[in-house]
Amino acid sequence: MRQRICIIGYSPIHRDARILRQIEYLSPDYDLTVIAHGEPVAAFPDVTWRFVPRANRFENLLTLVFLAAARLLPFLYETWYWQKRRNRLALRYAIESRPNAIHANDWSALPAAVEAARQTEAKVVLDLHEYAPRQSSDWWWVLLFAPAIWYLLRKYAPQVDASMTVCSPIAEAYRRDFGLDPIVVMNAPRFTAVDGERHATDGACIRLIHHGAAARQRGLEVMIDAVALAGVRFRLDFMLVPTDRAYLEELKQRARRLAPDRVHFLDPVPPTAINRTLATYDISLTVIQPRNFNYLVALPNKFFDAVVAGLAVVIGPSPALAELGGTNGFGVVAPSFEAQDIAATLNRLTVEQIEEMRQRARKAAETLNADREMTKVAALYTRLLNQQDR
Predict the structure, then answer these.
(1) In CATH, which superfamily holds the domain spanning 206-364?
(2) Distance, CA of 40 to CA of 13 (rounded, Å)
């Protein structure tokens, strides 16, 4: 009889690449129940899907009330968590799945996972997609949400059986602040042959792409400014999930004003189509403004997507990105995050350099891929669940 894993992740499941990889690599060996937002993913018909609602306006208002009051009465953080319908439903669905292990994606799933494990004797694996207590630098977030995250992690992290995160600096932060010992599982996609990867770079029209979320904190406008300052041979396409529609419209207006006909916006594609789409480009422009700790140390999905698709990568001086890109020879690092330095870095590139970096990206993808990274997850579950059987 196959063992059972319950995966909890409060994100729209169809576009959460990390959770989709968990499902892809664990489903051949385990019976999976997935608790998330959204709808079933057709590629995984054997998974049991359980969906929980997003917060409505009333719940959002209650959140502000609870978090403000909890500044004086910290026990209210616990009350706030459990008054949310999605957490109560997730707890119920997790218990009903009769799991041998529960995979909690991020701090928000942790209390529900720990309580379900207490009632079912399951193991708990915590997957930390970023350093949650420093997720934002906005004053209102630091004032209200950061203390809640600290409180819940300090209470529930000691009850975790194993943990993982996306890069070494974040692993070290969790080790220092919460006594966790996460393994590092990078956000790399599966290594596949991609149509279009061998197209020749056209020196008269060098195609750049940036894909991800339209999130104001990321400072995407700087890349528009950089392309406007760079030579006319550079064209930039954004492929953004409209998480902030007002910000996305601001970006479009800025592009029309500063770089007409040189910066365009495309509709996002599903995770399964990203590599095929990226492979038609020459360079991934992966400049993440370091406006919080996570952005400074990030190794995001988009970076590995570009590598597997065979793109050269232009990055800012983000330490982890610069190390991987520089060591493997597929990246060039701008001296700062400022538009003029990014533009100057682009302008110095020759077609021959871009072609060489693209070749090195495909070579690096032979090791920087999901088959390598997810082997760590499979080994972790084998160890945990074998211990449970003893």
Answers:
(1) Glycogen Phosphorylase B; (3.40.50.2000)
(2) 8
